[in-house]
Amino acid sequence: MKKIILLLCVFLGTLYANNYKFANFYYKIANYEKAIEYIKKDTLNYENAKLHLLWGKCELGLGNTNEAMAAFERALIFDEHNVEAELALLKLYDESGRVELSESMLQTLEQEDISEVQKEYISKIQGRQLETYSLRALAGVGYDSNINVSADVDELNKYYGVGGNIGAESTLFGTVNGAIEYKNELQSKDEWYVKAKGNLFYQNNLDAHYYDMFFGGVEAGVGYARANYNLYIPLAYNRLHYLETDLFSQYSLNPQLTYALDQNFILLSNISYLNRSYLKAEYESRGYSAIGGSLGVYYLLENNFVYLNAKVNNHSSKTSNSGAYVSKLLYSLSLGMSYRVNEWLGSRVDYLYRGSRYEDSLLASDTKRSDNYNQVKVKLFHDFDENFQLFTSLEYAQNSSNYVPAEYRKYVGMLGLEIKY
């Protein structure tokens, strides 16, 4: 008799465990009524927040707003830190005009440890007329194994046929950078806003001051945001001091569209135009204009995310007597992930591939120059609170080319502190 009871318990446990799996399957194929049937059968998992989260998604799929709210609220009863349920409720509260509940949910989310992309998504679904400021500052020290991005000295000597080439220079460095941003959601125009931003970057190289860099810029734009998308059109101006001279200035127009497919998937796309002018006579022939576009996707999961982005840019020389290797086609693919190991430690890994195909041929050859650039960056970080982050990072980059002087590899290690307000 005991064996029969035991087998019956195992059978019922398996049956109930499968209810959630079946419900999730029917949700994915958009058969929401069938999914809810299995959810209601899953009494063993009734106190599991993910069951009610799925229930809420199904009710949304059927257009049942009030039932969806109730399901997401139940999810928070069983897991008060369920960010996905909080985001879903925030959107529903805001769309239904439940202002006080929306405000309360925003305050709750501001205390959560969520990703930057999720924070940006929250700002898109607030639906409030706000005037906001934000500040970011970073200071760090590090080591660069090839600050002048030089090819191997032996390869350079062989290529030029003479000795005395310098090769890679390594150095310790210190860097500071920061940005301040102002945003105003226009009270007279629903969903419209204006934004302005200023940013600065400075790097001091202990053993190679010739390569010290100072970069600054300003940006201003207008945007339009609704519950699940945001269109922003900024115009920017930047200037670079490098190689002990005011090297170039540039302006760019960069319309950007962010679209939230649901609480987890966010699409990002943009088109861009850039015009760069070199400020000294000996560099003027290197000026160019560029037009391009990109398309990317983020997948958010609680405190973690993964992303994939593809980009294409076409550079065209601004002068008839162009410098060598100015006009080119660039295409790149970047991917990465951010993963919180535990409450104390977070991690991020990014990979970038960039291909460059030049219009110019190599010297004494009909072969056109072609480059392939690969970069891997690993970062570990600890958040003291929502405003302070201590991090360390290691980057490896390599450029392969059929033009020998353009080949190089380098390592960059860094330890820093980032502050956000």
TrEMBL record:
Task: Enumerate the TPR repeat regions by residue range.
Answer: 49-82
Could you tell me the superkingdom of the organism this chain comes from? Bacteria
Q: Does the keyword ATP-binding apply?
A: no
Question: Which residue stretches, if any, does this entry annotate as coiled coil?
Answer: none
**Which key words are in the record?**
TPR repeat
* Gene3D superfamilies (alphabetical): Tetratricopeptide repeat domain (1.25.40.10)
Q: Report what the protein is called.
A: DUF560 domain-containing protein
The species is Sulfurimonas aquatica
- Taxonomy-wise, where does this protein's organism fall, top ranks first? Bacteria, Pseudomonadati, Campylobacterota, Epsilonproteobacteria, Campylobacterales
